[in-house]
Design a protein that fits this description.
313 residues; five-stranded antiparallel β-sheet; three-stranded antiparallel β-sheet; 11% strand; globular
Length: 313
Amino acid sequence: MWGGSGEINRFVDTVYGPRLETEFGIELNRIPVADTVDAVNKVLSEIQAGRDRGGAVDLIWINGENFQTLRQADALLGDWSALIPNARFVDWDAPEVRFDFGLPAGGYESPLGSAQFQFVYDQARFGPEELPRSYAGLLDWVKANPGRFTYPAPPDFHGNRFIKQAFYELTGGSERWLGGFDAAAYADSSPGLWAYLQEIEPYLWREGATYPPSIAELNRLFANGEIDFTFTAPGGDRSRHLRWDSPGDFSTLRVRYRNHRRQPLPGHSCQCRPPGGGDGHGQSGPRTGTTSSQAGTRQRMGRWPGNIAGAAQ
């Protein structure tokens, strides 16, 4: 799994790990990766090499493009997500659960958590009545406050989300983009997005000549008072983290659209090994030291998306 958050790593190690071993006889071996695509490429390379048992990855914290890549490669186990114990707590009819990257989740992944894409602002600088409440409103706000807004340059996760949210609003909502990619519809609708980004650019920080490369740099600009907004990150309220190293009292602002796909945290790969023995890699049935029902549970948990998905090996 993505190893960039100490808080998340500790939660997985101290909450998930012990319960998996106690209740299901599964030893969780968390393998941190810098980017989820690293784990995805590992699975794909093993498939290309003809390896369908004993692979390096059982379970991946995944979402979006990476989910699409593995689905297209038929590399994920399906029809398991409704069978896990906590499935009764999931609203499987909710669009953010039914779809990932516009594709039907189809039982190939289970939600790990939920987050909203929100803007963080300093209440000491301006009040709620001064805030933009849509991307159209943001354009007006930026023009009235030149140099006080920017966003991370794609392919940064938050930069991508900012542009995706704008695209949804400008094209009438995310629902029309569910399902497979429609090149004709995109060609017809995308010019409005590019026009919006071009119109906003001269009013951005440094007149849009450069963009922060990451959310960390955006946070630094915000903490230094150079800009008036930063963004929340999946898995937590960014304002809680800023509060400790920045002056001011921070709050969050939701601008029209929630994250189209719920996004706990960017991907992670895990290796699961039964304590009694066996390699625990892949989905090859019962293993030493476990009952068949435990092995079946492990098999299903071996494919979560980020939501959670497991490699189909």
